[in-house]
Amino acid sequence: MKAFILSAMAVVSLASCATGPSAQTGSVIGGLGGAAVGGIIGNQSGRGLEGAAIGAGLGALAGNAIGNSRDQRRYNNGYGYGYNNRPYYGRPY
Fold this sequence. Notes:
The chain is an all-alpha fold. It is built from 3 helices and no strands.
């Protein structure tokens, strides 16, 4: 239980560094998934807490990269965030 709480705290702190909405979601999901997998693998070698912490960090970084890629693709396709996105004639139908 202590490992899960520490992993969740690490995920939340890393998710605050993400920029776009998909990057934030990817950081959280990747961090939680990485903590779970890292905890299981680390438990097999007797170091569950270290495995969960490493897995949470790596999972959050990977999830952030995937989410940031999704945000960039969405922004470049004309579905930008904000007021100055493409005009109507530049959008695909």
